[in-house]
Amino acid sequence: MCLGIPGQIVAISDVERKLATVDVSGVKREVSIACIIGDREINACIGDWVLVHVGFAMSVIDERQAAETLQILIELGEAQQEIAAMRTSGAA
Predict the structure, then answer these.
(1) Does the domain made of 5-88 have the CATH classification 2.30.30.140?
(2) pTM
């Protein structure tokens, strides 16, 4: 299992609980964004690329970093496993 897989925040699903829908290679999943909001308005997170690990967005990365990380994970065979796990464990 990888440490984090890149995804893009596409919607805020619960403002109070700080939950967002993240698109990871076409799989949409609800994750906590409490760790990455900082002082920003929660809706400002839409469009951010983040590293997702066990249901949490752990850090914000740029689109280039996201693409590079995903490519490395694919080459290592990690991305496919993680995406498959997301599909079977309650994708949004």
Answers:
(1) yes
(2) 0.82
